[in-house]
Task: structure prediction
Amino acid sequence: MEYILILIIHLLSAIIFIGFIFADVIVFPAVKNKLGSEFHTKMIEAIVGRGLKIYPPIVVILIATGGYMFTKYANSELGYFSNNMQILLMIKVSFVLLIVLGVIYTMYCKLTKTPPVAFMNYFHTYALVLGIAIVIIAKLMFVV
Result:
């Protein structure tokens, strides 16, 4: 029962996390094209202001619940690369670490008001692709 509760919390957090990224990459540009740049700017300011309060706890919850579930499938007793499931799990964890590093860097830039490197202007697009890959791998892990 404990594992199921952790899994549900993890999935809900992932929906919020990827949902925000999806909105930023797919929905918000459409709003800008349809309703104009001024409305888009005001909308982004309102959403990002709230997002900076919600996003960090969601990331922490995702890492904590994901770490808990990770230990059920990969540990010193079971091994780390002993079967296909664990190999996929490690690929998934690598993708997660890329996203976490990007989130940390983005938060750092926002808090210090430092402009990010040009590559990071497309971070949400990369994070969306990685997020979709993580979801697919999560499902494949239990099939292979």
Observations:
- The radius of gyration is 17 Å.
